[in-house]
């Protein structure tokens, strides 16, 4: 079975799209053996990710499983499946996409970084201030999307080599460094993605 994951991220720039693809690929290498590794398709914006995912599902090939991975951009109720949430939040219709798999980064990809604060310290150096990060690293889905990027900027402000957190320059490098087990332990939605990858 070939797994293709259509991911939100990378913007409109070829270089950042390539770095997005690489970051998610490195992250997934820690989840499952080489023969189960998904193919990452970095799509830029969330609407582009949904469109490409929808086209792939509609033109599905035997032996191929497609998944969508996007930010939730807000809190998600425990009883709200990702497809239902996105239908309400974004107006996306999954009714005619048989066999689809949909996953969320709650409330955004940066939340995953907060699950592994040791990786943040290792990346930014001793001047990084983990105490400036909000919430509980064991419950990252409750941290507001609006707080994620500003808190990372604030916590990394005094670091010498990397400087303040910058989404384009730092996000996908951090994604490759964090521990997926810590992310899954802190996010039920991330755990669902991991289980899907391992089950194929």
Summed over residues and divided by their number, the pLDDT gives a mean of 96
* Shape, principal axes of CA atoms: globular
Largest sheet: 4 strands, parallel
Q: Compute the number of strand runs.
A: 4
Q: Whole-number radius of gyration?
A: 16 Å
Approximately how much beta-strand content do the residues carry? 5-15%
Percent range of helical residues: 40-55%
**CA distance, first residue to last residue:** 6 Å
Low-confidence stretches: none
Notes on the structure:
Pfam families: DUF4276. This is DUF4276 domain-containing protein. The structure is a single chain. By secondary structure, the protein is an alpha/beta fold. It has 2 domains: 2-106 and 187-199, no CATH class; 110-172, no CATH class. It has 9 helices and 4 strands; from the N terminus they run βαβαβαβαααααα. It has helices spanning 14-29, 46-58, 82-90, 109-114, 117-124, 145-156, 167-177, 180-186, 188-199, and strands at residues 2-7, 39-42, 64-71, 101-105. The protein has a 4-stranded parallel sheet with strand order 2-1-3-4, with helices on both faces. Strand 3 (64-71), helix 3 (82-90) and strand 4 form a beta-alpha-beta unit. Helix 1 runs parallel beside helix 7. The mean pLDDT is 96.
């Amino acid at each position: 079975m070939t797994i293709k994951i259509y991911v939100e991220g990378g913007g409109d720039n070829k270089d950042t799209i390539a770095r997005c693809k690489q970051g998610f690929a490195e992250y997934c290498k820690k989840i499952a053996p080489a023969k189960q590794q998904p193919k990452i398709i970095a799509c830029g914006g969330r609407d582009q990710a949904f469109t490409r995912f929808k086209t792939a599902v509609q033109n599905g090939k035997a032996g191929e499983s497609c998944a969508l991975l996007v930010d939730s951009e807000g809190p998600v109720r425990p009883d709200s499946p990702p497809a239902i949430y996105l239908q309400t939040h974004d107006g996306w219709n999954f009714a005619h996409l048989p066999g689809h798999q949909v996953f969320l980064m709650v409330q955004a990809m940066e939340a995953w970084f907060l699950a592994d604060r040791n990786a943040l310290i290792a990346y930014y150096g001793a001047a990084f201030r983990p105490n400036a990060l909000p919430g509980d690293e064991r419950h990252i889905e409750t941290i507001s999307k609006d707080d994620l990027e500003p808190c990372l900027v604030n916590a990394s402000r005094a670091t010498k080599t990397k400087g303040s957190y910058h989404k384009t320059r730092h996000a996908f490098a951090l994604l490759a460094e964090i521990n997926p087990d810590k992310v899954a332990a802190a996010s039920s939605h991330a755990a669902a993605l991991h289980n899907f990858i391992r089950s194929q």
